[in-house]
Amino acid sequence: LALIGSLSFSGCSNELDTQQGNNNTREVKFVTGIESLSRTSMEETSTSTFFTAQDAIGVFAYDGDKAVASNIKYVYDGVKWTSDNAITAQDGVQYKYVAYYPYREGVAEPEAISVTVNADQTNGISADDFLTAMNNTSAAGAETVSLQFGHAFSLVQVAINLTEESPSKAAVTSVSVEGIQPTATVNAATGEVSGLSGDATSIKMEKANGKELFRAVVPAQTLKSGSKILTVTDANGINYDVRYSKEISYKQGKALQMAVTSLTPLPTGEQIVVSS
What we know:
The chain is mainly beta. The chain has no helices and 24 strands. The strands form 6 sheets. Strands 2, 4, 5, 6, 7, 9, 11 and 12 form an 8-stranded mixed β-sheet that branches. Strands 1-24-13-19-18 form a 5-stranded mixed β-sheet, with no helix packed on it. Strands 17-14-21-22 form a 4-stranded antiparallel β-sheet, with no helix packed on it.
């Protein structure tokens, strides 16, 4: 087990409506970046991170402690972010900005967003890779604002590297992360994550195209030593339990990579029921 790299992975209102002909207000343009790890598009062996067309973020703007723009939806077209209800800057007024990804309707308080990862991530992990950003240093009246996003959760990567000594060499068709509490509360203003909850569940992992590599995004948490951490299924329909003799920690903003090098099926035969 190796811990690799830090991350380097509609109910809205806007009180600052653009006033035509008013030279004191102008539309704010957002420039974004993401600390590396998981995200929408990612090369199979990389944890580099970037936005792609049609991604949407929610943005809040504050004048001191007063919210002047709440949960404004911005959509990326591959070059720039645009909104039908764009935030406007005013000369001499400094705003603080808080943002998150992916956009969702009805978010009233960015300090307490309840996020539950999907139990089935086989079609992609982007919807579960929750991101947050905050900027309170832009100049008064700034027309261009930078938002640097960080990952709220953890990336799990499982590489299947069966050796010649592996009793079974059948192709692996699916991998699931086990024992995961799927819900957490995210503070988009600080990037802090708390309130881990939900029954321990199984998360089906995404398979990288053309590679024996599986991925999932999970809230940060620790599994005690000896816990079942993975279920691996091969082409013969045989399930394999993967356990580890030490604690397993999925850390916020980190990628934990595991390699499965050998699969040993239990002997087949008549099933015995133990009654006591």
